[in-house]
Amino acid sequence: MVHQDATRAARAITMRVVHLVPPMDDEPPGDFVAFVYARLGGLQREAARLTGGPQHADEVYPEALADVAGHWRRLRLRRRLTGRDAAGAYLARRLDKRATRWRTDQVYEIEVHAYRPPVRHRPDESIALRKAALLERTERRQICPLAEATIAWSHASRRAHLHSVARVATSAALLLLALVRALPAARTGF
Hints:
mainly alpha; single chain; 0% strand
């Protein structure tokens, strides 16, 4: 009986030491689902704009959502401390990076069309917004935000687990290397 209590206490101490930062939950938190619900439509439109159409947007925006899910605790803390929408800004940055990476990976024929520039534009309007006005309008059926949030969360959870395994393996290898180097010094007395 005493041995079992000691074993449980040792496991509890070990678990606290190993998980200095607790692992991600299996289910996405409610505030992450609400974030995805509020941003999904705009995120899909922006991804479609960046990739040239909705048929390619599905290759970009789920990865950006998974990136946000992986950093959700840090982004939530930053929002509480600064009062700014840290998650929204991070999502925009990650979507831009993912779309840029997607474009560099693409090999495709380029078809050039000459369009007349818009007659009037505001001086503060960007070139991208002026070009977006010339693109065809497409409609996309709304996908359930809860499903998108759950998928992004599971991808981020899997990534976080792999990173923690890699950290433990690297730490063990470094510890073993330090022990191997210390062994000859211990034998000679230096």
